[in-house]
Amino acid sequence: MLGPRSLAVTALSPSYPDTHRRLALTVAREFSLAHEFVDTAELERPEYRANASNRCYFCKDELYARLAALARTRGFAHVADGNNADDRGDYRPGRQAAREHGVVSPLDEADLTKTDIRGLAREAGMSTWDEPASACLSSRIPYGAEVTDEKLRRIERAEEVVRAQGFRIFRVRHHDDTARIEVARDEMARALEPAVNTAIVTGLRTLGYRYVALDLQGYRLGSLNEALRLRPVS
Predict the structure, then answer these.
(1) What is d(CA 89, CA 222) in angstroms, rounded to the nearest whole number?
(2) 172: which strand partners?
(3) Phi/psi at 175 (nearest 5 deg)?
(4) pLDDT > 80? residue 51
(5) Is 74 exposed, middle or buried (0-12, 13-18, 19+ CB in 10 A)?
(6) 72 vs 91, which has greater pLDDT?
(7) Is the pTM here over 0.85, yes or no?
């Protein structure tokens, strides 16, 4: 354990839901970690709001610049992130920002996969060991559509509606006036149960969505990246 030689830092970012902040506080309390919050302002960057396929680079550049400055001020030798061996295959432009800021990835360097990490977390008694993976809220907005705080807050509230119905693994993808819901395939039938269906549709329409669609392919990691793979080669 690094103990007092380390500092856990959580970004208070408009791109992440409040549930993430609460999870960070839970873990910090369970393991008596020195922990702080830092504010990030990626929404003030036009490149981030434009939501091109390299959007994540600008978000991570914002985050790592602030963490690197904090590390220098406090005398910490490194900034470390949670990147792991399973993250090598997906499209992740944020890794470029990590390299530029000298961020280290101990879990990746140790060849630990998400399954390995969950197992170790469970052994350590971490209550969040089986918490579903969750990317930033901007990942629910198709590339090319502007990222705004209004959209992010609507997505956050929409996912709260779905979570309130007991779903664990899901996303609400924002397509203007349409909410496209991805749930794990083994939970899809329940999404069509009358009471559950009505609660979700009513809740999302209250938030301003005109249409509520259930994606028959179910939840898959980074589904909006599929559009990048489908683009014709010029």
Answers:
(1) 12
(2) 181
(3) -120, 75
(4) yes
(5) exposed
(6) 72
(7) yes
The residue count of the chain comes to 234
**Amino acid at position 42, single letter:** E
Label each residue of 72-85 as H, E or C: HHHCCCCCECCCCH
What is the distance between the alpha carbons of residues 49 and 68, in angstroms, rounded to a whole number? 23
Dist CA 234 CA 221 (whole Å): 27
Short-list 90, 65, 67, CA closest to 80? 67
Angle between helices 149-163 and 194-206 (to 10 degrees): 160
Question: Could you tell me the CA-to-CA distances from 205 to 82, 88, 165 in Å, in that order?
Answer: 36, 38, 16
Give one DSSP letter per residue of the chain, joined into a string.
--GGG--EEEEE-TTS-HHHHHHHHHHHHHTT--EEEEE--GGG-HHHHHT-TTHHHHHHHHHHHHHHHHHHHHT-S--B----GGGGSS--THHHHHHHTT-B-HHHHTT--HHHHHHHHHHTT-TTTTPPP---GGGGS-TTSPP-HHHHHHHHHHHHHHHTTT--SEEEEEETTEEEEEE-GGGHHHHTSHHHHHHHHHHHHHTT-SEEEE-TT---TTGGGHHHHHSPP-
Rounded to 5 degrees, φ, ψ at 181 are: -95, 125
pLDDT at residue 174 is higher than 70? yes
How far, in Å, are 114, 128, 168, 221 from residue 117 at the CA level?
5, 11, 19, 18
Question: Which pLDDT band, with edges at 50, 70 and 90, does 232 fall under?
Answer: very low
